[in-house]
Structure formats: C-alpha cells, structure tokens
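Hey,
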Amino acid sequence: MFSSGKVVELFYDVVSPYSWLAFEVLCRYRNVWNIDLKFKPAYLTGVIYGSGNQPAGMNPSKLTYIVSDLTLLSEYFGVPMFRPSDLSDKGEKWMGPQPNKPTAHM
C-alpha cells in the first residue's frame, strides 16, 4: 500500500501494553491521518537493562500509575486491555531474565 503521507515508524515490543495501544490506534487512524506506517521490532528489556534502569513494573508506585494510565487510555481509545491476574509476580516473568552484560577488561 502506497501513501503520500508522512512515514511513521512504530518501534514496538510485544511485552509492552503501550506498544499494543499504539499499534491499535495507529492502524485505526492511518488512513485518516494519511500516514505510511512501518513496524520496527524492539527489545525493551535490552534497552532497560542496557541503560542501567529497572523495569517500571518493579516499582510499586510506577506500577500503580501504569495500571491507572492504561485503564484510562484503554477506555479513551476503545482498545480492550486486560491485565494479568498475577501482577504480584513481576520481574523476570514480565521482562525476562537480565541479559548478560559485557564486562570491561583492563
């Protein structure tokens, strides 16, 4: 499909609920917004651990915010989203094991 509109690249990770929302909304409105949508897979776990950060879901305050935010966005955009019943099992179940970090040799 050819579009004369702007190219929008969606960098997504299948574990990210925000990726799902973005996918649904961009696909829904791509003709209305006249955009050419390109999908680019990304490895969010690698980005998080490579930057030295922790997954947001590991922080109880951030997890509470994410759940609230996704509920509001789901309702606003009409995209059904259901959270797992075992939210207490965070970490590796959600993000996978931490990748091996290269070590510096001196």
